[in-house]
Q: What sequence folds into this?
């Protein structure tokens, strides 16, 4: 296992925790000098807040841990390609390198839909996608498959109750 896979496994652990709590399974960790200094997971349903993405949580915790908003010596590992909001936060916090797992064809903003790293902002993170891609994509697919199945079961039970 290489260094990138090692840190992505930490992020996957956060994603699995998110899934256990009924959240979309996305996890993130921030690494500085070979050490994980913060982590985050999706908590939008729990917090009833659109801002509670894994990356935002990890960035917030890293800023607190380091005592400043500039994360220019840090790397971010996240299981899903960041959305526009998270890509903006990554750029604004000056994160050096972004490593993500699964590509997001609907909202990915580091290559899939748009690449915000190519715009003329004052900071351009290095971005590498596809780290542990299959495992990162599988946890998302499995989560949404289970969610759909649970909705079907609830619907069938409701129909049965009406009939009885």
A:
């Amino acid at each position: 296992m290489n260094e990138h896979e090692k840190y992505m496994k930490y992020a996957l652990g956060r994603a699995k925790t998110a899934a256990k709590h009924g959240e979309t399974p996305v996890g993130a960790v921030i690494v500085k000098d070979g050490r994980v200094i913060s982590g985050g997971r999706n908590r939008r349903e729990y917090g009833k807040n659109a801002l509670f993405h894994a990356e935002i949580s990890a960035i917030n915790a890293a800023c607190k841990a380091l005592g400043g908003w500039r994360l220019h010596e840090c790397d971010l590992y996240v299981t899903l390609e960041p959305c526009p909001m998270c890509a903006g936060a990554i750029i604004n916090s000056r994160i050096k390198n972004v490593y993500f797992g699964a590509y997001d064809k609907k909202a990915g903003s580091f290559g899939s839909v748009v690449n915000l790293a190519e715009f003329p902002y004052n900071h351009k993170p290095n971005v590498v996608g596809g780290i542990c891609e299959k495992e990162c994509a599988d946890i998302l697919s499995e989560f949404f498959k289970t969610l759909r199945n649970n909705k079907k079961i609830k619907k069938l039970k409701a129909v049965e109750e009406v009939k009885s």
About this structure: The CA atoms of residues 13 and 27 lie 7 Å apart. The longest helix spans residues 133-163. The two ends are 56 Å apart (CA to CA). The chain has a mean pLDDT of 94.
